[in-house]
Design goal:
- With about 325 residues, the protein is of the alpha/beta class.
- The chain contains 10 helices and 13 strands.
- The protein is about 40% helix and about 20% strand.
- α5 links the parallel β5 and β6.
- The protein starts with a strand and ends with a helix.
- The protein binds nicotinamide-adenine-dinucleotide (NAD).
């Protein structure tokens, strides 16, 4: 049984991974600030309540990851750290880049440094496919330079990685894994993200905005696959040091095909509305998942049609 500090544990991915950890008998201590960004905290309160209903032993501390004094004693209670807390979202990062830098870069540095001081040897944190920008050859490999971010969000995730990699030099026993998630979807997805938004709109008979000419491609990854990947990394035995992993489906599709697939899953024809391309959006994301396959024994399993059906069922259950 491991004792795991999960930051951001009442968010979308945090909820699912916490549930999986508690179900297999690990102890989990969640820290989350229940911030109202980039979506209402009500969703996070719901996730917390659902976790407590299912696992009454759920422990949640309300604190900000940049608050060293609040985080330090929590780290001391644990032997692994899964740092998912962060401000997500490409588009909103243009409105408050300083806040994104503070939470995503400073927050990661604070939590990792406290983990280092506590002698914790497994530090796993959420990075993003956005680090690859538009200039990385596709499918994107982890050893690409990733030096041209397209948004403050992408820059904050890449900066957090670089700080984490450098801090590993002072933590010779720490295994530090940066997980580059590729557009994660599933039940409880952040409400402003495309699939959750598009499914809600389709079921309500409202228009779906398709940005640009709809040729933008995304590598959508179901949250169940992401959870299996996170667990594999948390359990990984191997050399110390910094190592990034792509967790993606490796099978990108364009927006028009996504909308059509949502129509099939929802059993309704979507009503499409053209919208201008958004600043910061990359043309395509496409993961090379060779490293995760070889080192983690990980493979995405959820087919897009089944994954979309899980979102449709979730949205209907909340209607
Ligand atoms: N969902 C995706 O497609 C995706 C893709 C790439 C990377 N990521 C990253 O994965 C992580 C989880 O993403 P998610 O989709 O579950 O987002 P989310 O917003 O649902 O979860 C993040 C959680 O972190 C918490 N948080 C934010 N700022 C905090 C702070 N200062 N102190 C403590 N807690 C704070 C939030 O309240 C939230 O519960 C994020 O770091 C995100 O950037 C997500």
């Amino acid at each position: 049984m491991a004792r795991i500090l999960v930051t951001g544990g009442v968010g979308f991915i945090g909820y699912h991974v916490t549930r999986a950890l508690l179900a297999r008998g690990d102890q989990v201590l969640i820290v989350d600030d229940f911030s109202d960004a980039p979506y209402p905290r009500l969703e996070k309160r719901r996730n917390e309540a659902d976790l407590r209903d299912e696992f009454p032993q759920t422990r949640v501390v309300e604190a900000c990851v940049t608050d060293r004094a609040a985080i330090a004693p929590l780290v001391l209670e644990c032997d692994r750290v899964l740092h998912l807390a962060g401000l997500a979202g490409v588009r909103p990062s243009f409105s408050d880049p300083a806040r994104y830098a503070r939470v995503n870069v400073e927050g990661t540095a604070v939590v990792q440094e406290l983990a280092r001081q506590a002698g914790i040897e497994r530090f796993v944190f959420a990075s993003s496919s956005s680090v690859y920008g538009n200039s990385t050859p596709l499918p994107a490999r982890e050893d690409a330079p990733a030096t041209v971010p397209e948004s403050p969000y992408a820059a904050s995730k890449r900066s957090a990685e670089l700080v984490a990699a450098s801090l590993c030099r002072a933590a010779p026993r720490m295994r530090c894994s940066a997980l580059r998630f590729f557009t994660v979807y599933g039940p409880r997805q952040r409400p402003e993200m495309a699939i959750a938004h598009f499914v809600r709109s389709t079921l309500a008979g409202a228009a779906i905005p398709v940005f640009g000419d709809g040729s933008m491609r995304r590598d959508f990854t179901h949250v169940d696959d992401i959870v299996r990947g996170i667990l594999a990394v948390l359990d990984l035995e191997g050399p110390a040091g910094f190592r990034p992993y792509n967790l993606g489906s490796g099978a990108p599709i364009d927006l028009r095909a996504l909308v059509a697939a949502i129509g099939v899953a929802a059993g309704r024809a979507p009503h499409v509305e053209n919208a201008p391309l958004q600043v910061g959006d990359v043309n395509a994301t496409f993961a090379d998942i060779t490293r995760a396959r070889e080192e983690l024994g990980w493979e995405p399993r959820v087919k897009l049609a089944d994954g979309l059906a899980s979102v449709v069922a979730w949205v209907r259950s909340r209607a």
